[in-house]
């Protein structure tokens, strides 16, 4: 295994701030995208919150997540319009002041010129101590604070900015994989003794069972893991054979 993969995987949180998603006017595309961005680098998405553009709710949730060890991506609400509260709420959650960031102000002035004032410059008002995240699309930066990375809500901006953070701060771990077989002719409860035995034998792997009902009822039984997956599956097949249970490879 190369040195770049000799790191522990990291579990991330994802917060999406969007009234329009909660109201059903748009679909949250960030969840699927961040699963892919993280999974492709051997990391995991541990949790996902969808929050309204409401200051009290944002401040309370950010204060809670800032008290946890998980690094968190936050998408949305960092613009200059009156319904964008994320910058101020992040400052309140971290118990710091909202101050004008000189480098962010310069980037915004370079981008908009005379149109910077009086409104667009508000995007340079960031929590004291925040560090900038470059935006390759329009140069208006995001920011980081307390292991939270605050990005625009627009996917075409947020996703490359998240990639920049991941490549520079977190590197790559061994990718999480999964393998499974389809078991037939037994209810899921009948597999519990077998599953308990395999969990004890392969504690480094995550055993899962997913029942599928319908004309061809079956249970997808397998492991998720980063190493030792083939050995775990070989033991699983042996246990199924020993119990005379029918199974097949997923099509």
Q: Give the helix/strand class.
A: alpha/beta
* Helicity range: 25-40%
Identify the strand order in the major beta sheet: 2-1-3-8-7-6
Distance between the termini: 30 Å
The overall pLDDT average reads: 95
Largest pleated sheet:
6 strands, mixed
Shape: elongated
The radius of gyration over CA amounts to 23 Å
Distinct helical segment count = 8
Query: What portion of residues belong to β-strands?
Result: 15-25%
Poorly predicted residue ranges = none
Number of DSSP E strands: 12
Order of helices and strands: EHHEHEHEHEEEEHEHEEHE
Written account of the structure:
This protein is of the alpha/beta class and 251 residues long. It is 34% helix and 25% strand. The chain has helices spanning 19-22, 30-39, 55-66, 86-94, 102-112, 155-169, 192-201, 229-242; strands at residues 11-17, 44-51, 72-75, 98-100, 125-127, 131-133, 142-145, 148-151, 177-184, 206-212, 218-225, 246-248. Strands 2-1-3-8-7-6 form a 6-stranded mixed β-sheet, sandwiched between helices. Helix 2 (30-39) packs parallel to helix 6. The longest helix is centred in the middle third of the chain and has 15 residues, at 155-169. The radius of gyration is 23 Å and the shape is elongated. The two termini are 30 Å apart. 30% of the residues are buried. The model has no long low-confidence stretch (mean pLDDT 95).
């Amino acid at each position: 295994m190369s040195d770049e993969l000799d790191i522990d995987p990291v579990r991330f949180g994802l917060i999406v701030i969007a009234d329009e998603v909660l109201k059903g006017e748009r679909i949250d595309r960030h969840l699927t995208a961040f699963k892919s961005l993280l999974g492709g680098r051997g990391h995991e998405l541990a949790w996902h919150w969808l929050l309204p553009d409401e200051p009290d709710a944002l401040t309370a949730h950010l204060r809670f997540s800032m008290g946890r060890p998980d690094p968190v991506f936050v998408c949305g609400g960092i613009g200059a319009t009156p319904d964008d509260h994320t910058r101020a709420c992040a400052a309140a959650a971290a118990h710091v002041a909202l101050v004008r960031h000189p480098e962010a102000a310069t980037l915004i002035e370079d981008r908009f010129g005379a149109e910077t004032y009086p409104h667009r410059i508000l995007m340079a008002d960031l929590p004291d101590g925040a560090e900038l995240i470059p935006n390759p699309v329009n140069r208006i930066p995001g920011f980081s604070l307390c292991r939270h990375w605050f990005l625009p809500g627009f996917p075409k901006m947020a996703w490359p900015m998240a990639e920049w953070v991941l490549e520079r701060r977190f590197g790559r771990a061994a990718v999480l994989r999964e393998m499974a077989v389809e078991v037939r002719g037994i209810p899921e409860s009948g597999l519990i003794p077998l599953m308990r035995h395999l969990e004890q034998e392969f504690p480094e792997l995550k055993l899962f069972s997913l029942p599928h009902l319908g004309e061809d009822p079956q249970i997808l039984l397998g492991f998720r893991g980063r190493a030792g997956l083939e050995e775990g599956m070989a033991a699983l097949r042996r246990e199924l054979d020993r119990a005379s249970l029918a199974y097949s490879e997923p099509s």
